[in-house]
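#struct-help
A.M.: can someone run this one for me? Single chain, 404 residues.
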Amino acid sequence: MTVTETLNPAAGAGQDAPTSAAEILARARAAAPLLRRRSEEIARGRRLPEDVVELVRGTGVFRIGMPKDWGGPELTFAEQTEVIEALSYGDSAAGWCAMIGMDTWIYAGYLDETVVKEMLANPDAITAGLIFPVGRAERVPGGYRVNGRWPFGSGVTHADWVVGGCVVHSDGKPEPGPGGAPVNWRLVMARREEFETVDTWHTTGLAGSGSMDYQATDLFVPEEHSFDFTTPRGSGPLSAPDAFLGNVPGVPLGVARAALDHVRELAADRVERATGTPWSESYRVQTVIGQAEMELTAARYAVYGTLDELWRRLESGVEPTPDQQVSSALARVNAFRTARSVVSRLSDLVGTASIYQTSPLDRWLRDLHTMCQHILAQEQIVQSAGAHLLGGTPQAPFPLGLKG
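D.P.: on it. Structure tokens below:
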């Protein structure tokens, strides 16, 4: 019996499970207003409530990386981003957790088919965890003895499987990695209940993502439940080492779009206090809205254009040029920064009404500020892109899809 035969797209989600990009996107858009109504509750609880998790799961977002030859929809990078953008339009934390949780099927591309059959009998399974090697995996017969504590476990409170990046040790010493790497960086996967969560997530923004620490003490992980990004089982775009990063900019783009639409709705009933001029006729307001639309539209098209180009190159088996390699990473950073800038200026336009917690602008601005502290939105990515283009040394090669 093959993986394709056993992993029916409807398994674990009822017979109405979505099977196409269009249907998944339609469900995500339909869920957005429901998520918007729950945003304050999500933020207060500092995690997604169980029924919200199931609402998001029901859109099909967690199966968007499932390959077609396994019976899945296999959305392109741009299609994935559009789904994440739609969910983020409803709620920042829900969109963020969806973006993180859909990596399940990306990781599956590095595991044996027999393991995938066991771990992902439910194609809508959710993954959480930090991939960077802050844990320690001691090699033992049949697998690894894992110890460590990982920060930023977005969605770890509701995930089915949790990953943790580790440095592999043998006889107490770090192993060299493949291709001459100084250490052997390997990811281990185990069920959520095998890890202990540590409630550290008390933040200004993205409070509802539940991105708390998690830890393992002497956890045995079988060899077959571990992998690294150098040895994909298949080929194609979803086997690229940075495949799980393609849809990340959907979150800031969705949040900024929500904020801009919100302020445009406010403008319909507002007037300038000093002059009585309707906002629709105010030069000041018109300019802010026009500038915001210009910048957000340009950032969005940069994201989708570079993702489409990268997908086409990888799908054809043609190695991307240095310019193409870095273009999507730079567009990703720009999406984060542009979204924060746009929402900040919209908050300035609305004025004191935007500072209250009852205003969604307050939450959106705090969420974007927190997102922009993520490593994928940092100056290090810009430096690494410039270094790669100039033939220098990138400080963060992995987010650019470089293997070393």
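A.M.: thanks! The first helix runs from residue 3 to 6.
D.P.: also worth noting: DSSP finds twelve helices and eight strands in the chain.
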